[in-house]
């Protein structure tokens, strides 16, 4: 009989006091933090010096980064399926090596085509070393303790910008942008290639262990089953999840791109706007910290619906509540919802489709979400221009947010597992 991951955790189990899965979690907390810090958050720090040296404008340099994000989304299903079939150790080690070499190549670029070629390939590296492959590892190694494992990784990686923006700024100031990249490449190689290659294991069974370090009789009796991309796209639950998280990504990226000009347009000072924009990211950390204890009190489906409703409430406050109080209420609620959404997505993929198909499902969701991510800033910007202000754009985002609530609610209701879990 085939069981879902949630079903497999029921019954009496015996836990190992020193489960190797926690070693993997600590390694992934380190590697995802450094990967996001070097490949994602540091890019903006290099722009002024790089543009001056290469005689480029902001649109040209921003386009290279956007290209990488698009490529990462496009290759995500392939990367995910490879993780399912071959294991994350090969994929993440390859990605870390590729990323290290590309950061070195970035330090040597002299023309715009060089920059774009480097960041086109960087998109492949991003897909191999960011959250999705790491979460696929967690899905295989943990069931009952999965929320805690996900929380550790995302809480630590949530500090990537806090660590690497000032670090990169100091390196660029002291060494220049090319030497700074050389230093970051060395840091990236040492802290990601080695842990991925030496510590990651595909499955607990490789070490004679069970998920969570338990000895569940039900888990031993199950046989793994995989699905194809064609079967996945025909599954109504997947389509609902894809719709829900794509719409959520649309609102998140749209506000990330337009929150600063929106608040400036309302007459707030640049210093206040900077604090508010930074506060959205900081508020994600307590949101993530609350996810695991909330999940012990409420079902995943209820919590997912509540998180998406929280996002919509934050948008409504930004639209309807005037003054500083409205802005800070939005910052707190939207930031916390953003932080929990990362964990909700990983948990729902594992709970609905099982760990055997986690890579393909998560990668496919990333691909679809990348299309929404690419469209969001343009759509809101175009509506702002047509309406001569952000009010219409906020109404659009509120409608999109409401639709995401309906989608995730229906996904939770139709969560009957149609693909066997491991």
TrEMBL record:
Topology of this chain in the membrane: Multi-pass membrane protein
InterPro entries named in the record: MFS, MFS_dom, MFS_Riboflavin_Transporter, MFS_trans_sf
Transmembrane stretches, start-end: 20-43, 63-80, 87-107, 119-142, 149-173, 179-200, 240-260, 272-291, 298-321, 327-346, 358-380, 392-412
Main location as per UniProt: membrane
Record localization: Membrane
UniProt cross-references to PROSITE patterns, sorted A to Z: MFS
Keyword terms, alphabetized: Membrane, Transmembrane, Transmembrane helix, Transport
Domain Major facilitator superfamily (MFS) profile: 21-416
Pfam families: MFS_1
Keyword Transferase: no
Molecular functions (GO terms): transmembrane transporter activity
GO CC, any one term: membrane
Name used for this protein in its record: Cyanate permease
């Amino acid at each position: 009989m085939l069981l879902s991951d949630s079903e497999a955790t029921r019954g009496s189990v015996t836990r190992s006091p020193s489960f190797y899965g926690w070693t993997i979690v600590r390694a992934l907390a380190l590697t995802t933090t450094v990967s996001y810090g070097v490949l994602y958050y540091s890019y903006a720090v290099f722009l002024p010096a790089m543009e001056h040296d290469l005689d480029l404008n902001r649109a040209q340099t921003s386009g290279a980064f956007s290209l990488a994000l698009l490529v990462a989304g496009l290759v995500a299903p392939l990367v995910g399926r490879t993780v399912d079939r071959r294991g994350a150790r090969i994929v993440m080690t390859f990605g870390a090596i590729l990323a290290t070499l590309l950061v070195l190549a970035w330090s040597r670029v002299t023309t715009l085509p060089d920059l774009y070629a480097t960041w086109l390939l960087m998109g492949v590296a991003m897909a191999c070393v960011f959250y999705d492959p790491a979460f696929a590892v967690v899905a295989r190694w943990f069931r009952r303790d999965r929320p805690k494992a996900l929380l550790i990784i995302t809480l630590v990686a949530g500090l990537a910008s806090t660590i690497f923006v000032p670090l990169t700024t100091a390196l660029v100031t002291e060494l220049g942008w090319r030497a700074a990249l050389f230093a970051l490449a060395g840091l990236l190689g040492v802290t990601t290639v080695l842990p991925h290659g030496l510590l990651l294991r595909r499955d607990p069974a490789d070490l004679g262990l069970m998920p969570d370090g338990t000895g569940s009789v039900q888990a031993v009796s199950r046989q793994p089953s995989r699905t194809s991309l064609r079967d996945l796209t025909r599954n109504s639950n997947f389509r609902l999840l894809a719709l829900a998280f794509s719409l959520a990504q649309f609102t998140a990226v749209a506000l990330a791109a337009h929150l600063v000009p929106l608040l400036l347009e309302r007459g707030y000072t640049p210093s206040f706007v900077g604090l508010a924009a930074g506060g959205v990211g900081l508020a994600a950390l307590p949101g993530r910290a609350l996810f695991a204890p909330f999940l012990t009190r409420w079902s995943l489906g209820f919590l997912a619906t509540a998180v998406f409703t929280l996002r919509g409430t934050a948008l409504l406050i930004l639209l309807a509540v005037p003054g500083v109080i409205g802005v800070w209420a939005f910052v707190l609620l939207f930031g916390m919802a953003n932080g929990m959404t990362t964990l909700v997505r990983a948990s729902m993929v594992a709970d609905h489709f099982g760990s055997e198909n986690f890579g393909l499902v998560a990668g496919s969701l990333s691909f679809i979400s990348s299309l929404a991510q690419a469209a969001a800033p343009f759509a809101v910007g175009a509506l702002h221009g047509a309406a001569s202000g952000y009010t219409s754009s906020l109404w659009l985002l509120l409608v999109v947010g409401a639709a995401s609530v309906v989608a995730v609610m229906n996904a939770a209701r139709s969560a009957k597992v149609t693909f066997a879990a491991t």
